Amino acid sequence: IDRVPEGLRVYSNEPDLARERGWTHVEDSLYHMEDYRQDLEELNKVQVPLEGGGLIRIEKTAALTSIDVDSSQGPDQGLTPEEINILAAKKASQQVLRRDIRGMVVIDFITCDPDKRKDLEKILAEAFQEDPQAILYGFSPMGLYELVRKRKEK
């Protein structure tokens, strides 16, 4: 791994490699580390909170994975829908990569102006720029953001 997306941690039991690449060095089994356990638990949650309020819901079906942005949960810190959408775009892309979600992914952002959608598209394009498996289709006429990550060949 040469480039680690923002917010992700990479662990290594080789101290020189970890120091050289800015990874987290572990001396013991990863399963004994509280941070690692929390990371694993987050990967199995349907609801993932956003810093500052709101959350995203990640639900898999046979056909696709849907990510719904919800502003009604969590502490209200006066964030606008646009600010929540920006936080959600970053968190959703992070979760898609961390969970290695493949196939069709649909993100239902809080309704926003077409001008604000460009900001979200830019965030998602940057997040997936190094992922050769990702094809970003952008917003559908219904206002859903669509992307596909190629499924692994069996």
Structural class: alpha/beta
Distance between the termini: 23 Å
Q: Indicate the mean pLDDT.
A: 83
| SSE run | EHEHEEEHEHEE
Tally the beta strands.
8
- Helical stretch tally: 4
Identify the strand order in the major beta sheet. 3-4-5-6-8-7
In terms of DSSP E residues, the strand content is 15-25%
Task: Please give the share of residues in helix.
Answer: 25-40%
The largest sheet is: 6 strands, mixed
Radius of gyration: 17 Å
Shape: globular
Q: Uncertain regions: pLDDT < 50 for 5+ in a row?
A: none
Give a summary of the structure in a few sentences.
The chain is an alpha/beta fold.
Report on this structure:
The chain is α/β, with parallel strands linked by helices and 154 residues long. It is built from 4 helices and 8 strands. It has helices at 15-21, 34-44, 81-98, 114-128, and strands at residues 11-12, 24-25, 47-49, 55-60, 64-70, 103-108, 134-139, 145-149. It has a 6-stranded mixed beta sheet with strand order 3-4-5-6-8-7, with helices on one face. A hairpin with a 3-residue loop joins strand 4 and strand 5 (64-70). Helix 3 packs parallel to helix 4. The longest helix has 18 residues, at 81-98. The chain starts with 10 loop residues before the first strand and ends in a 5-residue tail after the last strand. The model has no long low-confidence stretch (mean pLDDT 83).
